[in-house]
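Revision sheet: structure tokens.
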Amino acid sequence: MYPACMGEKQGSAGRFDPLASLRGGNPGTAPDLLLSGSVFLDIIFTGLEELPSPGTEVWSEGMGSCPGGVANQAIAASRLGLHTSLAAVFGDDGYGDYNWKILQDQENVDLSLSRRCEGWHSPVTVSLSVQKDRSMVTHGHPSPLSASELIGVPPHARAAIVSVGPELEPWAQTARSNGTKLFGDVGWDPTGEWSPTVLDGLEHFHCFMPNAVEAMAYTRTTDPWAALYVLAEKVPVAVVTAGAHGALAVDSVSGEEEWVPALPVNAYDPTGAGDCFGAAFIVGCLAGWKLADRLSFANLCASLSVQQVGGSLAAPGWGDIADWWHRVSSSRSGLRKQWLRRYAFLEEIVSDVPPAAARRAAATIANQSDA
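Predicted:
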């Protein structure tokens, strides 16, 4: 039994707001996005040629430290202008202090539903980026409080990210009843069973966004498109991410079906790219964009995130997106001409982005990055 857990005050700062027109001039206090889960302290090593063999040591080209786990999506969403509320347990150790400070004071994530727990240490993950892929080592203990114990009666959020399973947690059931759109995700199944019964819970969800491996495993298919069509029968908006091959989706509400290729980039650190994609796609959904624009925007944000070290702190803000648009539109020939056509919807949006809008941060405890 852990001692009583305490709340802490949340900070705030101005952000470019992609949903400003929907708020009718009233910023309100309810969150746009509600999340729950575990916050890790991520220590990331990049540029490794190979993993160390027993008894040896290898040096990496770069490293960084930042909040990880559910913090990846929380920070990505907040940087993109969503009023984001996170329910998580934080340890009372130095890692917990660091994670809380970054999320609340630097990244403007609402932690009013989170708690600090005495005697519970923060989980830690070491991520090793090798040959454009990653391996991880993690240590942690079960959370002393469930998400429903943290949240209680959930606030009236526009959207919530919830793990897909046969049954919804009580807080998610209440949120859905109150009109919150549920966006589902799943994690890796270490048992290798990939039980199809997990998908039975999709009847409660507005959108499901697995990667291709997860989608094919749960649907017992061998092709991402086949998996997508199976999922589209179960949920209004189905998305399958396929890494370097882009993303494909069916929106049964609007009748749209799209595939958008990934942007060609040098992937320096893939940590958190999927979380960044999901947060960006939710922005597009809440803003009412057409499906092709939602997928394009999510692909862009994911591609920008992998070009810097740091998982959550490599997630782009609107300042990065505006910088990318202005850089690409400086030349309207060759491949850039195709990008400009695909991303034309951004031109009007970024015209309102102020020069001081949020940008990616250095991902290290020392406040500057080796990368």
